[in-house]
Amino acid sequence: MCGSLLLTLNLLVILSLGLIFNVAHSMRFDLQSGTTKCISEDIKSNAMTVGKYSVINPNDGFPLPDTHKITLRVNSPHGNNYHHGDHVEAGNFAFTAAESGDYSACFWVPDHKAPLTVTIDFEWRTGVAAKDWSNVAKKGQVETMELELKKLHDTVTSIHDEMFYLREREEEMQQLNRATNSKMATFSFLSLVVCLSVAGLQFWHLKTFFERKKLL
């Protein structure tokens, strides 16, 4: 009984961590014509990410008006383009991140003489959440428990990789802090030298002035 309870608690902890480290964003937002909206996601290197988007048709049963079509660009932190949808009503993208950092998905609606609002559905998943488990189950013909174990294995692997990624980011931040502290110490020393030099020059100037006036 105790062993089963501990196993259940461990599974819950792993699943909870998996939810934290593997992100799935699903949202609906409005975008005014002539404006751009960018959504960013912090993705680590070699992580899988998938996304899909679609414009909500304001007139059910009729084709989507051309005025409601959008443009989407998905770029990496270094500006590399991973997806470009031009004047489309729906689309999807999938790629493996080649570099770590903030990836951005920017939506744009062309400007029109009569202002309008476009409603967009957008879903962005990364890590284990990006894997299509229904296809895995169909292809492998695995039982439910075996599928859950596969999910847990991938979740644990993702958490392990995420821990190393966070450790690397922490080391980078520590190096940045040390470099900043070193620069601040150098700047403070130079400021002190300048202040002392100015004070010395002022003292010398006043002394010379008083000597000329024969006050000293």
Automatic annotation (TrEMBL):
The chain crosses the membrane at residues 184-204. Residues 36-151 form the GOLD domain. It comes from the Eukaryota. It holds the Pfam family EMP24_GP25L. GO terms for cellular component: membrane. Keywords: Membrane, Signal, Transmembrane, Transmembrane helix. This is GOLD domain-containing protein. Residues 1-26 form the signal peptide. It comes from Fagus sylvatica (Beechnut). PROSITE patterns: GOLD. It is found in: Membrane. Belongs to the EMP24/GP25L family. It is a single-pass type I membrane protein.
